Amino acid sequence: MLKKPYKPPKKTGPLPERVTLERAAARELLTTWQHTGNKQLVDKHLASMDKLYGQGAEQRIRQHMREVNRDERHG
């Protein structure tokens, strides 16, 4: 009898670490914007975030950027 190869279970729900990764990306992009002032570069990177973190990631990361700027940088 042949053994079937191991297949990891498929995850269909939201990734639990996505919030942490998105917040880290927000901190990185906010720092880039503060040091370079290059809005086009930040917008370009934000446009590619949907591919990495799923639908609506750009808006979520922009919100994280606002929260980090308000709570951590000027708090």
Explain what the structure shows.
By secondary structure, this protein is an all-alpha fold. The chain contains 4 helices and no strands. It has helices at 18-36, 39-47, 49-53, 57-73. Helix 1 runs antiparallel to helix 2. It is elongated. The termini are far apart.
Brief descriptors of the model:
single chain; 75 residues; mainly alpha; 67% helix; elongated
First-last Cα distance: 65 Å
The helix/strand class is mainly alpha
Along the chain, the helix and strand elements come as HHHH
Portion in strands: under 5%
Mean of residue pLDDT values: 89
- Low-confidence parts, pLDDT < 50 over ≥5 residues? none
Gyration radius, to the nearest Å?
A: 17 Å
Helix content: 55-70%
Overall geometry:
elongated
Query: Sheet bearing the most strands, described?
Result: none
Helical segment count: 4
Structure summary, number of beta strands: 0
Note the topology.
Layout (H helix, E strand, L loop, with lengths): L17 H19 L2 H9 L1 H5 L3 H17 L2
Helix pairs in contact: 1-2, 1-4
Task: Describe the structure concisely for a colleague.
With 75 residues, the protein is mostly helical. The protein contains 4 helices and no strands.
